[in-house]
Every structure is written in structure tokens, then in C-alpha cells.
Amino acid sequence: MLGVDPGTPKTEFTFFDSITANFIYIGDLIPAISKKHKARAMRKNNFLFFGLLFLTTTISAQVKVVNLLTENQTNPIGLDVQQPRFSWQLVSDQRNISQTAYEITISASKGTAWKSGKIMSDRSVQVPYAGAALQSGKKYTWEVRVWDNNGKPSPWSEPAFFQTALRFFVHQHF
User: Is residue 13 within 8 Å of 25, Cβ to Cβ?
Assistant: First the structure.
């Protein structure tokens, strides 16, 4: 701890101290142990610290799906396409991470409009909609998740949306 004389025995030992590099006081906790045992205890504590650090890094290293686009637009309104195409990007704090599969879910106000199911593909650009015909003038929300090359699924993306254009059918009378 800052401002504490290293020669002064430490009277309190907190969890925070155990996960930081504050292991110089272990000998002060048990003054009767030999230098050999102090060194062994320090190695065990350092092993525990770096093991927890590695575990925390591994758990938090997850792929995230960002920058969702519909027909190369962010949340378009008045989309006049029967089968829109979706794109997204991956972000990871690890190197050499790639997509091996994806799943898209599209929802409307009355529930799910389409679920792609898990599709084994590395494709993330211009993925076509393959559900039932979209309704005119309706807002749809979509999300995607991916699986990385380690087989781990990402969390679902933040939702994006698109709204279809109004379609008028003109009947010609002769």
C-alpha cells in the first residue's frame, strides 16, 4: 500500500490486496517462516494472481457484432426492396478471430417475422433476407449473433431496424 513503511507489519489483508501485486507483506503475516517458505508462498500467490488475470482475460475476450446495415444503410426508412440484404462487422480484442456461422432474427410489432437459424458461413456482407414477404410501410427490427472460429457464440447485437416503403398498386382501366 502507498505510504506504508515496508518494515511495519500489515494488520489488515483484503481481497483487493490478494489480487494485486501487494504480496510483499506475506512474510509479515507469519514472521516465523523461513526465506524458502516465503519464496514458495510468493510463487503460489503470483501463480494465483496471473492465473486469475488469464482467466479474466479469456472470459472477457468475446466477439462483438457491430455496425449493422440494411442495404448498406443504417436504420433505413422507406426501403423499397422485397428481400433486403444485411451486413455487419465483428470486433474482438483477440487476434485471428473469424466468423464461422451466424444467426439473424427479424421481429415486427406482432412477434418474430423470420429466424434464419444457425447458418454455417463466414459471410457478413449483403446476407439476403429469406423469409416471407415483408409488409408495406412496416417497421422491422433485426439482430444478429455469430460464432467464432473457437466455436463460441457472441451475444446478440444491439438491435437495428428498417422500415419498408409504402407500396401502391395502380390498376389500369381501359
Answer: yes
Q: Does residue 28 sit in helix, strand or coil?
A: helix
**What pTM was estimated for this model as a whole?**
0.63
What does pLDDT average to in each consecutive run of 10 residues of the chain (174 residues)? 53 47 50 65 64 52 92 96 96 93 95 96 97 94 96 96 83 60
CA pair distance 174, 171, nearest whole angstrom: 10
The answer as to CATH 2.60.40.10 being correct for domain 64-164 is yes
Query: H or E stretch including 50?
Result: helix 35-60
For residues 126, 130, 135 and 140, what is the CA-based torsion angle, rounded to 10 degrees? -60
Domain ranges of the chain: 15-60, 64-164
- The pLDDT value recorded for residue 51 is 58
End-to-end CA distance of the chain: 92
Instruction: Determine how many CB atoms are found less than 10 A away from the CB of residue 120.
Output: 8
